[in-house]
UniProtKB/TrEMBL annotation:
Coiled coil (UniProt feature): none
Residue stretches making up the XdhC Rossmann domain: 78-219
Organism this protein belongs to: Roseibium porphyridii
Pfam entry (one): XdhC_C
Transmembrane segment boundaries: none
Protein name: XdhC family protein
InterPro entries given in the database record: MoCofactor_Util/Proc (IPR052698), XdhC_Rossmann_dom (IPR027051)
Amino acid sequence: MDLSLLQELNRDRENRNAAILVTRMSDGTQRLVHRDGKLSSDPLADDLERRFRSGKSGTVETDDGDFFLTVSVPAPRLVIIGAVHISQALVPMAEMAGLDVTVIDPRTAFATEDRFPGSSLKADWPETVLKETPLDAYTAVAAVTHDPKIDDFPLIEALKTECFYVGALGSRKTHGKRLERFKEAGLTDLHFDRIDAPIGLDIGAASPQEIAVAVLGSIILALRKAPETAR
């Protein structure tokens, strides 16, 4: 492997950037592909996009020859805003599904080790936590506090940084008021289309545990399926 490509790939891994090393099987020539706006013009675009979503390496056969795609994607993360009953059910399920989970809530009455044993719990304001651990494209954000003072900032940041999933608890009326605030913050309809609200798959969920199942389903759907397929 070319040393410069290896160094670039290592930098991508350190910075949680997704990349695929494309190796032509016939002669061993290699190139590194990143998941950005230029991907659509790549001759292997469809296969690369599928690999970025699955996270699995493998061989691709084309009319131009065979290629091996070595996939390097960050571990998917879930940031839950709100240490509520839904979060208590969602944390262990999300961890079993392979997500690195962080729960953020400045309300110390809710954010306790007793309620969230073993989880990555941050009893602080989202503004403070996310400054130390920024969001990225391989992070899902689920805001479930019902409190705009806590939910709004991480939701806006999630949309700006193109998190793969952005969900928010609340009725349609509540969400409408949320969008009015977000317009004042400079967001547009393109951003709003990416918000899953009311949060979770429409499975008729009633209890916190059922809502947690619906939320996790939406997150996995957003992670593994192309947007048009997910819709």
